[in-house]
Fold each of these.
Amino acid sequence: MEQLYSLKSAAKKLDVSKRTIQRLIKQRPDIEKYKVGSGVRIKESDLKKLVVKQVNLENIEI
C-alpha cells in the first residue's frame, strides 16, 4: 500500500506551508485527495507530481 500524507505532514516534508500544499492541489485536478476522518490525505506519488511540476515551472527561462 502506498504511503498517504496529511496536508500538514506533506507541507513539513516539502518545507512549505499547509496553505501552499492546499493551493498546489487545487491547481492540479489530477491530484486525488482522500478524506480520512476529518482530514485530507494525498498519496506519495501525487506529492512527487506536485514537486516535479513546480520544479519544471521554476526552471523555465523567460
Amino acid sequence: MPIVKVIEVISSSEKSIDDAIRNAVSEVSKTIRNIDSVYVKDIKAHVKDGTVTTFGVVCNISFRVTE
C-alpha cells in the first residue's frame, strides 16, 4: 500500500491564479518526485492603486513516498 505525503506551499504570479498554481508545482517538482495532486486551500490577490498586481495561492501538494 503506497504512502502519500502532503506538503503546504505558497506561490504567486503576476499573470494569473492558474500560473501561480503551475509555479508551485514546477518549483516543488524540482526536489520532489511522484506528485499526484494539488489542492488549492486559499486564493488571494494583491491590489495597488485599484489594480490587481499579483495573485497568490496556498496549496497542499500530495505525492507518493517511495523507497
Amino acid sequence: MEPKKNPKADLTRNSGLYFAIGLAVVLFVTWQAIEWKTYEKQENFEYTMDVEELLDEEVPITEQINTPPPPPPPAAPEVIEVVEDEEEVEETIIESTETDQEEEIVEVEEIVEVEEEVAVDVPFTVIEDKPMFPACKDVPKNQQFQCFKENLDKHVRKTFRYPEIAQEMGIQGRVYVNFRINKDGTITILNTRAPDKSLDEEARRIINKLPQLIPGKQRGRPTPVTFAYPIVFKLN
C-alpha cells in the first residue's frame, strides 16, 4: 500500500538537525551575555598646587624667654642669748702630755696570751711513734704495729664472752669498734657498728677493759691516735 503523503513534505524529517543548531545558537548567545563587560567613563582632571606661594609665607620665630629664678627665702635672724656677768662658766682644763724630769716613768708589761694547741686525732697507720702495750716497749719501730696487733688479739680472746641471749637467738656477726688512744694512754670508744645490741655491748666491754697503753707520739709530742678493730662473733 503506498503512502498518501509526499515524503518531501514531512516536517519531522530534519527536526534533530534544527534542534542542534538552535541549541548551539542559544548557548552562544548566553555565553556572550555572560562575558559582556561594561566600563564607567573616567573624567580626566588636573589639579596643580603652587608650592612657591606656600613657601613664601613668613613663619613667626618664637623666642625663649629666660625667667630669672625666684629669690631665696630670707634667713631667720639669729637668737642672741644674753648671759649675765654673775653667771659662772665652767672652764675646761687641758692637761699637758709633756713629762718632767722628776716624774717617774712606769713601764707597762704586755701580756701575751698563748693559745693551747688543739690535739687532732691521727690515724694509727700514719702516726710516727705508734701506741704500744707495755710488753712492746722495747720493740723496733718496724715491728710496733705487729706487736700491738698481737697483744690486742690476745686481750680480746682472754676477755671475750659470747652473750647468752645472742646464743639462744642464734645471733652472730662482726662488730666494728672505732676507738681512740688518748694522750695519756687511756681508751675512748668513738663509735661502733654491730648487727645486734647484745653483741655491741659485749664489744664495747672488751675494748673498755684494755689496760693503759703507751700513747703515740707525733714529732715527739703525745698525740691521740684512732684505731678501728673488728670483733667476730661466730657460733660453732
Amino acid sequence: MLNITQTFYDNLASQYDKLFLDWESASHEQAKILNKIFEDSGFDRNAQILDCACGIGTQAIGLAKLGYNVTASDISDGELAEARKRALSADLEIRFENADFRDLSKTFSKQFDIVIVMDNALPHMLSSEELEKAVKSIANQIKENGIFVGSIRDYDALLENKPPYSPPYIHKTDNGQRVSFQTWAWNGDHYKLVQYIIDDGEALKVSKFECEYRATKREELTNLFMSCSCKETIWKFPEETGFYQPVIVAKKASV
C-alpha cells in the first residue's frame, strides 16, 4: 500500500491543484466548512489541529489562515514539499512532518484537540486490518473529549453500481481548457483508480496517475472509532455541510 500511495502522490504533487477550478478558493471554502464543524463540536480557534493526510495543504493552510494552530503530516515527500512552499508563500507557520498515519506516535509525542483526515485518504488502507491500525493510531493522538473529522467517498452508494469512471471536471484556462477525470476498475470492494489530467491549450498534454483504494463503508469506520475510545460518532452529508464527501465526526471519551 505504502509504496503505491507514495508514488501516486509524489507524481501528482506538482499538478494536484489542477484538480480544482481555483485551489485557493477551495482551500478557503473547505476551511470555513471545517470551522463550522469544529464550532458545532464545541471548539474555537484555540484548538490544536493535526492534519495527518495533508497532501499539498488544502485544509491545513486554509485552517491556519483562519488562525488555528495546525500541524500537518503526510507520507508523500512530493506533496509535503508543495505544501511547505504554499505555506511559506502565505507567510504561515505550520509544522510539516513525513509520517504514516498508521504509526503517528512514532512522529508525534503530543495529542491534539482535533485530528483530520480529509479527501478519501483512509480508503488507501487496502485491508480491514490496515484500516484498524490507522484508526487506532489516529485515535491515540486525540486528547480526551477531542474529535476526529474525516471524509470518504459515499461508498455505501458506489458499491451498489460500481461505476467505471467519475464524471469529468472541465475547467477553462488562459489558453484553452483542462479536463480531469478518473477511471475505476473494480475487483470486489477494491478498485484501481487512474487519474487523467488533460490540458488542451497551446499544446495538448495528457498526464496519468494510478493508485488503488478499498471501498470503505460508513458502518465499518463508525465501529472502528467506537472501539477506539470514542463515545459518539456521527456522519454529516454534503447537503448539510457543503463539503463534497460524507464527513465523519467522532468524539473521544474522557478516561
